[in-house]
Structure formats: structure tokens, C-alpha cells
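INFO batch 0412 | record 1 of 1 | parsing
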Amino acid sequence: MKDKLMIIDPHIHMTSRTTDDYEAMAAAGIVAIIEPSFWLGQPRTQVGSFQDYYSSLVGWEPFRASQFGIKHYCTIGLNSKEANNEALAEQVIELLPLYFHKENVVAIGEIGYDDQTPAEDKYFRMQLDLARELNMTVQVHTPHRDKKAGTIKSMEVCLEHGLDPSNVIIDHNNEETVKEVLDRGFIAAFTIYPKTKMGNERMVEVVRKYGSTNIIVDSSADWGVSDPLAVPKTASLMLNKGISREDVIKTCYQNALDAFGKNGKMKEEHWLGNKGIDQRELFNDNSVLRGQEPKIEGDKIV
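INFO prediction complete | emitting C-alpha cells
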């Protein structure tokens, strides 16, 4: 990219990624990320494993990101897939309010539907009620199967529970769902995958057709085949394909900041005022170095 942009990836699961990814992301212009709580691949069997995971998202992972110059935020919620273990889900719902007020928690998420079962519907609605009571932003996971019907159902349930559409990010959109989401006043996020579901070439055409208002690009990079550089790569492709710089900034930076910054915890000054990396720092007596030489920067201006 000729003129380096600041990038926010508002949906990436760094718990599953490496320090090499953090270094590459920072080099590509990513200044801040949002890590939604999600399904780890292996079904959890005890509420304590949820508690430790949520604690990592508000503790260790923000520290690890800071060691590579990236500001870390997260969303906390019971994911749709594990909502189907109702005995465990009941305990997790009781646990959630302990985390909503942590300093880097910017929304409830990612919540919604996977197979659109009655149990998923029950716990989605319970978390929407919590969001309304606490006036929190919501990040919605839409199902990868029966996508359009699941997306429409997600929005209708949000409205039924009194949520303001402008405070709800509907994620994992594609060409089939985007118009409906924007027409209803929700924010439409797109997950860019390397080979499937939604690619960056298609994302360029979505922005060309629908513009940049209320549209967000993210990577959803996790433990599967995915790309932690999907957002900067898509930004670069958009510029190369003639999308205006203003629209690229909105879809790959500003819209995410506006959507997730509503509770005042996510602020641009956090990275504009970044004093640089100091890998001599410790978290609970631990560092990321594993015996390597620490990287130390002086006062830094992004």
C-alpha cells in the first residue's frame, strides 16, 4: 500500500494465533483489534474453562498484543454452538456480567445462531436482554448454513427485544444478506476468508455497489484456515481497484471505531498516544520473549 493506512480488525481470534501474526499485523498497519469470545474447536465441559478463557481475553491477550504495538479489545458472550449444552449454558450466563464492565470489553458477542436450534434461540434472547439492560453494543454471529433466513431471523429477534439496530453489528454477511441488513439500519460486517464464504475481490464489489456507510471489513482469523492480514489486504485491493481512500478508511478503520467505541472504552487516543513497544514488561511475572532479546521503542507517533 503506497500510503499506509491505520487499520482496525474488529473480529479476530488472537488466542489461536502466533506472535509472528502480531508482528505481521502491526507491520501491515493494524493498530487495534477486537477479539470476540468464541467456540475454541473443542467443546468445553465445565464453566471454569469459560471463566479462564474470558479472563485471558481481559488479561493476558491484551498484554500479548501490547508487546507488538497493537491495542486489544474484546467482546464477551456465550457463543451459539455451545448454547446447545444447556446445563453448561445456564452457568455461563450467570458468569457473563462479571466481565461486561472490564476495561477492554466493548460489546456482547459474538452471539446468535449456528444451527438455529431452540436452545440457541433461548440464550441469544437472554443475552440481548442483558445488552438492552446494560445499553451495550451487540456483535451477532450469523449462521453459515441457511445464511439469509438466519440473518433475517437474527435481526427480527434483536428488534423484538428492543435493540437499536445502529448498535448491533451483524457479522458474516455476503451479497445475499447485505441489502437487507443495511435497509433495516443494522451495521453490516464481512468476514474475509482466503478461499471460501467471502473473498476480498467480492468485498471490493460490495463496497463499490453499496458504498461505505455502515459496512465493516474483518478477518475472523482463528485456528482454522484463515488470514490475519485479510483486512489490510482487502484495503490495499480496494485502493488498487479504484475504491476511494475515504471509503477504504471508513470500511477498514473508522466504522469499526464508531460502532465499537460507543461505550467509551475504545478510543483512538489509545494508539495515537502509544509510547511504543517495551518487551521488558511483564504480566503476572511472564513475558512473551521466551529468552529472546526484548524490543524497546522510544516515544512513538503512529
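INFO post-check: The longest strand covers residues 105-112.
INFO record closed
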